[in-house]
Amino acid sequence: MIASEKDPSTSYFPLGAARRLVGTALTEDLGPDGLDVTSSATIPADQTATGHVVAREPGVLAGAPIIAPVLDGVASMTGGTPPSLEVRIADGTRLEAGDVIAVLHGPVRQVLMAERMMLNILSRLSGVASHTRRWADALAGTRCTVLDTRKTTPGLRELEKYAVRAGGGTNKRMGLFDVAMVKDNHVVAAGGVAAAYAAIRTRHPDVAIEVEVESTQQALEALEAGARFLMCDNMSIDLLRATVAAARSWVAERGEGVEIEATGGLTLDVAAAYAATGIDYMSVGGLTHSSPIIDLALDLD
């Protein structure tokens, strides 16, 4: 499979990225002095309580491992003691309304300082995972896998791509550095598909190369140039089916294979029909740029 091989496991959680995010978000929320003016004025420093992180609606969980860094970050910033934490549901698990994701116990001030940031991140990542799961379910039983894109929130790419994996999707590439994608502007600048492909292969011989095509003829030209990973952009189902058949026939005559991706304007209601054309992948930018959040809450006893 020609996709990013950087930490492909669903179980891998990008802790470094999470800690960087927590540091930035805490300063944004508590200010340079680490202050919650409401809690510090109304809640005694020694008051403790138990809180439950609860799902308010169905979905798929992603981001539970970030709760601990959030609690630790609040404690470090304020000089307090982090609450104890019990995570009860693993990432990738389907949630029902009322499910208790985690239980916290400790200083109320610390819990409330952590509440909104923790829920913001969990809700966002769980929204991505839930949206991805709908696509994965729609493609179940086909040869097609749903891929994400680089259309991620700046600074959150590793975490959002982790959420895609938690939802049953696959990461295509982490950035501009690990997979080369030849698009129309590259073709114009390089003087043709063959020239662009050759230049990349010469400069970066070990990097996977994908070529964007918009017609069957362009697909065959890309194959002639050496490409074995095609991205069929904004094709109708009939055109895509014809392109897939022509491309697979071309490489079969040479005893080779090709991987084919569809992209552009895809929706859940046509996902199965597009998958039936014989494509290997379907890339959906909306997994990361348009997923609605999942409603999660923190309830104190």
From TrEMBL:
Residues 36-126 form the Quinolinate phosphoribosyl transferase N-terminal domain. The keyword Transferase applies. The keyword rRNA-binding does not apply. GO terms for molecular function: nicotinate-nucleotide diphosphorylase (carboxylating) activity. One of its GO terms (biological process) is quinolinate catabolic process. SUPFAM superfamilies: Nicotinate/Quinolinate PRTase C-terminal domain-like (SSF51690), Nicotinate/Quinolinate PRTase N-terminal domain-like (SSF54675). Residues 128-299 form the Quinolinate phosphoribosyl transferase C-terminal domain. It comes from the Bacteria. It is an enzyme of class 2 (transferase). Keywords: Glycosyltransferase, Pyridine nucleotide biosynthesis, Transferase. GO terms for cellular component: cytoplasm. It catalyses: nicotinate beta-D-ribonucleotide + CO2 + diphosphate = quinolinate + 5-phospho-alpha-D-ribose 1-diphosphate + 2 H(+). Its EC number is 2.4.2.19. Pathway: Cofactor biosynthesis; NAD(+) biosynthesis; nicotinate D-ribonucleotide from quinolinate: step 1/1. Belongs to the NadC/ModD family. PANTHER family: NICOTINATE-NUCLEOTIDE PYROPHOSPHORYLASE [CARBOXYLATING]. Involved in the catabolism of quinolinic acid (QA). This is Nicotinate-nucleotide pyrophosphorylase [carboxylating]. It comes from Janibacter cremeus.
